[in-house]
User: Fold these one by one.
Assistant:
Number 1:
Amino acid sequence: MPNVRRVERDQLWLMPPSLSDWLPGDHLAWFIVDVVAALDLSGFYRSLRADGRGGAFYDQEVMLGVLLYAYCVGERSSRRIERRLVDDVAFRVVAANQQPDHATLARFRRNHQGAIADVFAQVLGLCIAEGLVEAGLVAIDGTKIEADVSTGSSVTRRQIVTEILEDAEAVDAAEDLEYGDRRGDELPERWADRRDRRARLREALRQLDADGPSDRESYRAARDAKEAELGHKLPGRRADPNSKWASPARTRKINVTDPDCRVIKDGRRYVQGYNAQAAVTTDQIVVAAEVTTAARDSVVFARMVDATDNNLAATGGEPVAIYVADTGYWSIDNATLDIDADVLITPMPMTGGITDPRDPRIARRREVIERLDRGEIHVKTAATELEVSTTTVRKLLTHHRSGRPDPVQVRQAMVEQLATEAGAAAYAKRKTTVETVFGNVKANLGFRRFSRRGLTAVSSEWRLVCTVHNLLKIHRHRLAT
């Protein structure tokens, strides 16, 4: 008879099994368990009842460990996580052989989104302790992440108002059928979801009304800055409605499933989603992670610099010496940011106007604006001498009085700095830092779409994803050493 190991499926355990025998000691699951045990989880326990009443909660350490490990292996669906807590040995080890259901997992992620976001800073501190953070150079970049919505749910302001009115009429008709001439205390249960939709419609309507003026102000500020830089007035809005400087349409759409998300251009396509930002060191450690609804990266550069400085200061990291960013972050304000670090940003290509700081027209323009500022000439006279409109003259005068540096000189200074050997070498590191992180997040972790809704929720999830990226860097570092 062949020498074959016997299989006895009905054999009972003679001794209680030990989870420590289920996986090798260097497995990622044990690493997550050890990391979570070392974190400060007071933010998670603070919301639990202290009087001992009610049903028992799952240990918050176990719940956080399951969530972190799930994101490490690219699993974000609470239902699939529930199944893997039964089928997957590693998940069972992290959960201490407990099996919270999908509703419990989703509720934990929803109720503790602030505490989950705060874990990012603690893990960054672990990266610094491991010697993985060299903050001499930090690259900042953004990537577009799709929202958990359907593009068919985007509507205009008129459509929202129409649906609210139609929905109200439908509710009235249903109440008439249900109660007749009597008064009902509450709506029938079948209308519960419709009421929730009306709440989301009203929130979308509120955001359309709130964002409209700010969008126009942002457009106006960007247009004014461009005209001041070029030294002449841009084409009128009515003359060129297809121009990128055209006025924002009053019929802007908003998604009623997630009113916070926006239509953002991602390469050659448009996505309904968010602009996820990351600041990354040369060792591909994320030191700051933020989410914005702004389509332009340039408006969040200062915010990312502040977040990076604050995170490193709070975790004992070294200050940043150089910030690098691509053309999308170019603006005069960003290039002249008042910080204790160098800023390297590729200037946006000029489309017209004065491009050479040695151009005699710059000195001529400065001389005319100074005479205007002293009251020696009138605005119309200055416009005639400079061959521009009076509106452009007033913008140039405002820029002159603000004391801000000349845009052409700032641009030329940045070009010269990037042309140096040190500047070129520093900027060349950008692609191998932040682009690598985005590649890992999207390709390896499979994170291309948010599973939460709302700016606060997706910000928490983005920091969770970046936390997981940093945890995997620590784990690989320990395996290598």
Note: DSSP finds 18 helices and eight strands in the chain.
Number 2:
Amino acid sequence: MSLTKQDRRQRIKYRIRKRLSGSDARPRMTVYRSNKQIYVQLVNDLTGETLISASSKEKEIASQKVNKIEQAKLVGKRIAEKAKEKGIDNVVFDRNGYLYHGRIKNLADAARKSGLKL
């Protein structure tokens, strides 16, 4: 029996999460990508809390009429700005089972350009 697309991504996600863990000094930057939106969170896995979040649903980003790749760049830039305000410079990037190309890659690159170390 072959795996569904969701089952395959879930297995990849578990394999990645075995090795990654976020702390207060270096939180985990996790990405969720839906068909229309993209969401990113900085998570402290030791306490189980979300430190910062950003998404393409925020008013500043949603009001701009751009394609999804440009939207991902704006979200990456926004999360980096919020992290700088909280004093976070280093993060561990969790691609959450998605392939590292397209929107995921552009989000990570935009966060790097804005000063976040992945």
Note: The radius of gyration is 14 Å.
Number 3:
Amino acid sequence: MKSIERSTNGSAANSGVLPSHLRLATCGFALLIVLTQTARAETPAATRARAIAQWPAARPIDRAKLVRLGLRVLKGRHITLVTDLPSTPEVDELPNLVDAAVPLLAQRFGIDEEDLRDWHLLGSVIVDRETFAAADLLPTRGEEFPDGLSIGYELWVAEQPSDYYRRHLLLHEMTHSFMATQLGGCGPGWYMEGMAELLGTHHWDPKTKKLRLAVMPASRKVVPMWGRPKLLQQAVADQRLLPIVSVMQIDNRRALDVEAYAWVWALAKFLDTHPRYRDRFRSLRSQTLEPDFNAKFRKRFAHDWSDLETEWRLFVSSMVYGHDIEREAIDFARPAPRRARTPHRLPIIATRGWQSTGLRLEAGERYEIKASGRFVIGQEPDGTPWPCEPGGITLDYHAGHPLGQLLAVIDPRPESRPDQAASAGPRPGTSAFLHPQPIGLRTTLAPKRSGLLFLRLNDSPDRLRDNRGSATVSIRRLP
């Protein structure tokens, strides 16, 4: 039986002997229908080898016939690309793009580059489908693909409205082909599409032939027609923020809309970049053939699921191009919290997001918070710094507050230990960080709920790297 990855700007999988409308969740799961009974007695390596062996080599092409039909053949080390697009530097460099991506994918998925010396794809970049049908280059069973499709060592990409998005879609489908033919499967739909979207988001330098994958685009201008952050911003504005478990339910057995791709990209990008979660996320590459993939994912993050869900909500709600996930990462480490009965002083760093004070504030009490010091909260285009104090500056605003203003959040979640999380199950996150309270130079807090106090200097998540210095904050309980 042959397993098929299928995509409309992505992929869902399909078993080769089922009717086309009975689509399976992932290429890996499709293979497991054949392999499940025998795999129980096999080692993981043997199961993977069996899954990989299901993929036949790409079909040979009749170059003379293709030329007669007006098609061009572009050759690279790892791809033969057929297209009816006219010759331009942006089109003709596509084989170089694929060749540059192969060692990066090998490193990402733990594959020895030597094992990929003969790895080769047949790809089509299509304007007129009738011409490709006449050339016998469309999928053999007539699979539909509004934008892209991957079947083992063959892939198809419909022409796109920008050079960037054409490359993005080619890398997206190439990722599916790589995972299917090297890992044996791609995991459940959200992971399959999330990885393809993550690794399709790239920076390419045609002069040096240097490629970077899994980038956070700095602006809309560098990724024309991609638009994932805007889709998420609109979803949040419409109060349609998806928790992680809902993103994990995105099912590519049916054609997905573009917003679904935005959600799976965001989750993959967040987990792949966050310093506390990325190692666990990247280790999932060895689980793509596991039928209980999602359960193992939940188990990996069970002890800090509440923190993960909290930061996920904050990430999506503050989504911008250039979002600095690493600097925005919150350290939730909860040593025995101090009660603010005596004055407590600490620095709040301008280049970081939310920072724990280690102080637990009690409901019904009153606390005085004072801040002082000067720091840099941005700069002019010519590099002239913007000096600032904790009261903020009105040269610019972010999320309704002056830039640099000291903000506070009280995290009301109860304390828990990792051993407790395992028995009690994952706790839900909190949305408290979405509703910060302005502090400025001085204020009195009277919390309605007890919790751990977090502080930050207000700035957009894409502009933290321009900042310098810190403010000094003093906190004491009032009698």
Note: The mean pLDDT is 89.
Number 4:
Amino acid sequence: MEIVAGTPLSALKPRVWNPESEYYLPQLQAVMISYADFHKMPARRRKAMEQGLHQYLEVPTHIKIYLDNGSFYFIRHGSEVPVKEYVEFVKQAQPDWYPVPQDFIPSPKMSLVKQKECLELTMDMNRRYRQGNYVPVIHISQVLDKYVFQLKSYKSFLKKEFIALGGIVPNLLKAPKAMHPQKILEKLMCVRHEFQDKKLHVFGIGGTATLHIAALLGINSADSSGWRNRAARGLVQLPGTGDRMVANLGSWRGRKPSDREWQILSACQCPACHKYGLEGLKAHGVYGFRNRATHNLWILLEEARQIQEHLILGDYESWYGNHLDNTLYRPLIQKIIETRTSC
């Protein structure tokens, strides 16, 4: 499974994709940036269109650039989504992967009528931009089966290489009126079954535990900005477990590492830990942030690598039992293992 590292245009460092950077992560295969960031910065938008995203962001051509359409940002800020400008940007800046210009995101607390409205509006956008390489978007919601039905009703969609899945995070995190986790998993497994020849991308998954769920469900790629968000709060990720607070940055709170977990961190071989050690993770300011962010992304990439390795070896079930201690997601993972062939 491909981990797509989400990063804001306003703060691109650490440039983990740059071979000349001390924080370079050679395992990284893709990055994601939001169109909303470019829309807020017209001068940078213009330069990216003139140079192309790879040259402008100094991302090597072997690393794919995913573009988020920014719908969540525009909706949250009460702004109209700039569809025409997005289309122009895609044409000129040439990202490697990009969804339709706008999707209408249903929240779990919406009424069924509202969720159906989001479905129809999103599917209308999918149909309008069915030509070319625009990726159609569907959402995890009470009407997911209708998204699937409508996608399969159009021959042009069946020719698409990718389908993007949104809306999974608030449901899995048990937001108000969220679907039951078992029901979500059943629906996701059926989506994978219905579109066996498609590559599935999930927006916004990226914790070490949720990577297991995505991999078992056959998700091909998932983006995450959590590696940076956690670092900004003084948090680091550990393999097979939750977040730990290593830097006291004021109002943020979190669980501190145990003695054993400090030992694990001290032996970490990510570029930041290898060069700067625990003091680098504990540091305040930009220096500490970059070290923690690099560490967090390295952990995600390594977790994804190990999951894939054990799935191929056929010993995943016995391995994860000893490796993963996240009590929230373990029952879900076990349920997937038990039912993944029943769809």
Note: Residues 2 and 221 are 4 Å apart (CA to CA).
